[in-house]
Specification:
CATH topology of one domain: Histone Acetyltransferase, Chain A
CATH architecture of one domain: Up-down Bundle
Number of strands: 8
Structural class: mainly alpha
Length: about 750
Amino acid sequence: MSNGYIPDLFPQDELDGLVSSCRNLAKQAGIPDTPTHMLKFFIDRVRALLHVVLCFSPVGDTFRIRARRFPGLINCTTADRFFGWPEDALQSVGKKFLEEVELETEELRTNIANHMALIHLSVKEKSDQYRKQTKRNNYVTPKSFLELVDFYKTLLEKKRKKVESLVDRLDTGLATLSKTEKDVAELQVDLTHTMAQVAEKVKATDALMITMAASRQEAGVQQGIAEIEKGKATIAAAGAAKIELEAESELAEAKPAMDAAAAAVDVLNAAAITELKGFSKPPNGVDKVMACVQMMYAGEMNKKKHTWPNAQKLMKNVGGFLQGLKDYNPENMDETLIKRLQPIVDDPVMEYSVMLGKSFAAANLASWAVNCYKYNRIYVKVKPLMDSLNAARATKLAAETSLANALATVAKVEAELAELAEGYKNAINEKREVEEQAERCNAKLGLAHRLIGGLASEGKRWGMEIKVLRFNLSLLVGNVLISSAFVSYIGAFNAEYRNQLWKDTWLVDIVERGIPIQDGVDPLGELTNESENAKMYSNGLPADRISTENGSIISQCKRWPLLIDPQLQGIKWLRKREENREGGTMLVLQMSMSNWPRQLEGAIQNGYTVIIENLGQEVDATLDPVLGRAIYRKGRAYYLKFGGEEIEFDMSFQLYLQTKLANPHYKPEIAACCTLVNFTSTEEGLEDQLLARVVNVERADLEAQKQELQDAFNRYKIELFNLEEELLTRLGKKVTRRNIVDCSCNYR
């Protein structure tokens, strides 16, 4: 910084190459081409063009020591100190990031952003007081504020979805229950009709024999008619097949001619027709070809008009001319045209090979005319045969239709007869079954009434619960606000400062700003519940309030937790919790291990849970990308640069850090990347723990009974929730009058 050059920075061969690269510029500047002058010119250019920006944290001794050792850091630089964001900047940033959050009014959005700024500034102020009173350091940075906003948005969305899901579930159950009541009333009417049908079936059974006798007689008559129609259809089918065979044989002779005519037109193109049209005088024989075309295509029978100019006019629209040839139907050629064409077609000059030597287009037009003529002659010959074939087919179709109708009638009569026979066979049983059906219907109707009566109280409770949930949904903005601030900022403080922040500062400000919040809200109650607390206690977490808060913060925070744990209470609980977690792999590391970077790299790639124990005052810079979550996406995978290498990042990876230092002083960069959680035992916390231990020893029976009751309570609560979920799921399905009785049987 002082001289602009570091001696022996480059090897001599590299330095010679760098100096040589500046030789042309030095020559233009009038610098003598000597090693000394060239080196000085290179150093001067570096001084003029190289810009260096140095970033130092003012916290700690590092910057002070380096400034004392290297005076150039002060003498040769321009110092620019960056201070924390002011309140208006925090409010502006908070409001900007809250724009995508659905809130009732813009005033509420502004109040939330202003409160977030107050949270940040109050924590900064309390951190200064905390440092003066307890000699403990805690830092808040703009990144901490951004993490607060992001965590608030995530937690609010999660809570809203959960409450809305509960409301929809209960609302669907209530609507279905109301509809079911109406369906049961309609079911009563249906049962009345069913009882009337029972009497009708008894009468119908007596008349069954008479109907069966009449049906047998009708079936015999229709069977005879069907046999007659079958004979007629067989004869008609044989005659039609014979005629069809003859017609197909004759038409087979005409097909090559028609295919040749079509092929002759397909090979023609605009260029060939244009070439033919361009002849001032047609070659010999071409006039005959065009005479055929004029008679067939244009219907011109006057020989005097069969001239070359008229033929050229006919080919004037080349595209239309070619399309007309393709669309021409030889079947429509009349006998007058045939008589005019016969002498020309029989002329040897009309042969394709002869005409090809005169004109390609004329040869194909001649082939078209000749083959159309041949096709027509065969078609005229076969047409009477085709007419006979069509008549035979019509006769065959009529006979088959008549036969099908007769067979259908026979089948219908036989089916009716079989049905009547089966009905007669089961007449006595059916009568008994109908009576039993009436009895079952009455029983099912009673069950349906019991179902409605049994769920009446549940319906009232669901209705009240929906009102409570919808009211609580409107209060989530405040509840989540204080909970997210609790997780983001409170962990580094002791119990006294925690209460001063969330009770005396944040909660008061939320109420004053009119942000909706639940009366008597407790952030701990928003972050965990009795069941989760019981699980944490069973894994070894102390049962005092401060430890419970720490456990909930670690479970909810988005940044990596850093446990300040001199008594090792937190690490014991954390280890046991991760050991008991299903489907996870835990890896415990210490920075003193020789191969910890390689083990951590494998854990990141495989999505393991890593606990780094006994962290010192200084954190290895290798961990910076991991702590800062400097991940990026390439394709479908996520990557991280660790130890100078790019490694794949598994999103299941979890990191926990723990230090045994009683009062560590971590840089603000660490505080911004991690959630500091103070597990240092306090007098009040130790009293609570000691009381729990004493009760456990002195009255182990009460402690066991308490644990047993807590486990039973959790188990019954889960079972009650599952039963209610099953009931609401069934009610949420499409329930109709036909299956409501079956549903009532299942519920019983």
